[in-house]
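Q: Convert this sequence to structure tokens.
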Amino acid sequence: MNQNNIIIVILSFYMVSAQVYEGLTLFSPYSDGPEEDEHYTQLIDNDENIIHAWTHGRGPASMPYLLQDSTLIYPYRVVNPSMFSGGVGGGLHYYNWAGDVLWNYEIANDSYQHHHDIQPLPNGNILVLAWERHTATQDDETEYYGGAGRGWSEMGRTEVQNPLNQMWGEAIFEIEMVGTDDINIVWEWHIWDHLIQDVGSDFPNYGDVSEHPELMDINFGEAGDFDGMCGPQGDWIHFNAIDYNANLDQIVLSSRLNSEIYIIDHSTTTDEAAGHTGGNSGMGGDFLYRWGNPQVYDRGTAAEQKLNHQHGVNWIPEGYPGSGNLILFNNDYVSAGQQSQSAVFEIETPLNDDGTYYLEQGQAYGPENPVWIHTGGFHSNVQSGAFRLPNGNTLITDANDSHIFEVTAEHSIVWDYDYPGGENSMIARAQKYPLNYLGGDFPEYILGDVNFDQIIDIFDVLIIMDMAFGFGIYSPTPPADYVPNGVVNYADAFALVAYITNN
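A:
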């Protein structure tokens, strides 16, 4: 068989095997083992080979993030958190590829406690989720956000359900890393600035909750005093995921306890984010959009609730199938006759041309239903998430079972991975990166080993064929330049085929 015939065979094989997205999957398992040297982040290929790993002295708060310069940001659990609830974190480590800590910072004090998720930004800064403590009353000497007269009872909350008589709201900080152990806060947002109540006109922010979907009803839901992972310390809303859309300059958030997702404007100044005007939307830091449980803003009933304790919300990137839609993991999705079942939802938001979201007077935000649902055979009551891949597949993480799997748009499972850590392990979320994701500091590689599995074979040729002939999945990477001339083209594919046939 000559090389041209081999290429034809390879192309035919490529069309059959292309359902699986060839990428590198990143995750940080959590276990109940010893604190030191028990935790790590792994980067694996589709054959479950460990391409790279980072070790950690503390367990993860959620998922790590690999940046294109091959550095890693890892949110971790501190030793003594100020507020302990599900998803507690407190610390951030920033590593290079070799595993050296380049920067470290902790947000775990009497006023604030980082928890769950972070989001690296294109400008190099990081969005950080943090619980924010509020007592019943606050005076001029208070260290709690808002100062005098901004305690929970002074803001119109009628009661809390915890023995500490406190309420932990939510804040977002955009931080700039400074040196090896410091930060600048360049932007911030606090839910305490966007409240409404209908219990009395003597309190601030009095109004009809149903007429103000852009605000949060301070009296909705409990604040502590219940069993389970959220604990008795006054956890109220329990954000568990954050994502950023650079095209819109907007942030999306997920609330476990309210079973809602929210979108806010990031184009504001910090002063505008504390108010109700300004930014691209003209709405300041108010909610631009919310979805999942219209009961929270008095525009629906339990029958109209769509989400139950969801996690992992994120936008589908530009150029991917479903671009601009939101995708999330609905932890306690239940359909007729079925129990203990999760699902992945894809949601097409009613986005207006000006970056706001359509809302009919007196009605709940749409859509009526997701545009795509994947369910069946999996359930997790904690963390978990889903990410759309460039080829239209979706990578799903079932946290409780430490199970990662990839499904097609037609719901076929084309790849799955069970972490061998046992029943005490958990994987919050995993993400699959394209092979060409890493940029200037591209890690060490074997020329021709395009998928980093330490073997040069037909699978490497398949990927080079895509890179060379523009099938649209992979962009060129250094290992694919088999005939080293600065470009990846047909010559690299032919040369690699010759190498394989001769060896």
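The first strand starts at residue 23 and ends at 27.
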